[in-house]
Amino acid sequence: MSLVVYNTITRKKEVFESIEKGKVGMYVCGPTVYGYPHLGHAKSYVTFDVIYRYLMYIGYKVKYVQNITDVGHLLGDSDSGEDKIAKQAKAEMIDPYEVAYKYESIYFDCMRKLNVKRPSISARATGHIIEIIDMIEKLINKGYAYVTKDGNVYYRVSKFKKYGSLSKRTVDEAVSGKRIEASSDKENPEDFALWKRAEDNHLMKWPSPWGDGYPGWHIECSVMSKKYLGSFFDIHGGGMDNIFPHHECEVAQSEIANDSPFVKYFIHNNLITVSGQKMGKSLGNFMTLPDLFKDYDPMVVRLYILLNHYRRPTDFSTDGLNEAKKMYEKITTSVSLLRKEVEKLEFTTMELVPEVQELKEKFLAAMDDDFNTGLSISYLYEAQKLINKTITGDKKPSMLLALDNFIKDCGEEILGLNFKNNNDSKEEELIEIINDIRKKYREEKNYKEADILRDKLKNIGISVSDR
Ligand SMILES: [Zn+2]
After folding, report:
1. In angstroms, rounded to a whole number, what is the distance separating the alpha carbons of residues 72 and 220?
2. Which of 125, 182, 367, 439 is the most exposed place for a label (fewest CB within 10 A)?
3. CA-CA distance, 153 to 191, in Å (whole number)?
4. 29: CA distance to ligand 1 center in Å?
5. Tens digit of each residue's pLDDT (9 = 90 or more) over 78-133
6. 27 C-alpha vs ligand 1 centroid, how far in Å?
7. pTM of model > 0.90
8. Neighbours of ion ligand 1 (CB under 5 A)
């Protein structure tokens, strides 16, 4: 068995071989922090979270880098229009740094609820202005970028012959439909901004050799991937809508600035659609995660995303979410009953159970086939039926333990689902509250009340220690 991944560069499934044995460097384009994260973000970051988890599970040491775009992402996605964060700042009447910090923390909070692991490094664009200026200077010196009289710097696309090879577009196709703004100071319409001059009232700006300004969106990813992963690294991920122009531009910048190939495998997740149209903040047809979490447990949302292969679009529907909810509840109930039986066992055994072993092999084979989570979940569902059969039948210890391990490894560690019964977690929270009260009594040297609480907890089988 070996892992096979679909590589956007070749449009083929390829056997995965890391550049350095046993190690993987992975860069995924992070959020632009100017609004509430929505289901589209969840699909992308849950997808790469599972890829991250699976690579670690099969033994790789993974360095996972994700950027936080807190400056430079313009409304037009390329280099026209207002900065998305600056616009939001005006709407909320706060400064752009406040906007970025506010939505960054909401983003991480939503990801935590979805059980998405924090990347090894989360890098903010505003923390890398020196390196950005440095890379732009390299591109200018090599003749691949030019400074205009207005103080803007653009990439000279016609000079990079490979431009369009990732998205399989010719430069003409890439430009068609693109309006040349009347005020544009570009040599050619396909050129893209590396540095934009800031107006006097623009708050997020930095001094540069070309005057006060701020970086374009594409350059930050070239700079941050180079800084943390080197010139050539294993996996670059993002949503399919990033292939063009964003990743195309990254390739053009990085390959020239670093004199090196850029990425071995480009992996792109498909989008969330609403009646066939992309879900996005700019399109106004999105559902924010905090709103969605009011009606659905974040674990249900995670399962809903994973039921579909990451390269297929997910057409948003409440029917689909309700199906996922039923499934999640069924598995959670069974796992909770299973764990009560496992707790009662007085010994553990590592005895292999062929039936469960076979399920696990099938599960891993599905994951090896370009992370086919939809198929792998069907084996999780088979395990759930086997759990019910076992706990209502002979309760054979080796079977109980093997099933518990299967759920821990495949369902929880790899897929990142959490099968904790809500009532169980409430119980834990309650015990914590009681324990806090007890601690307070002890701090106040009210040992009598503290001991009464301890004895009452002991009576229901919960022992507490004062260490
Ligand atoms: Zn990026």
Report:
1. 9
2. 182
3. 10
4. 4
5. 566 778 888 888 889 888 889 999 999 999 999 999 999 999 999 999 999 999 99
6. 8
7. no
8. 29, 221
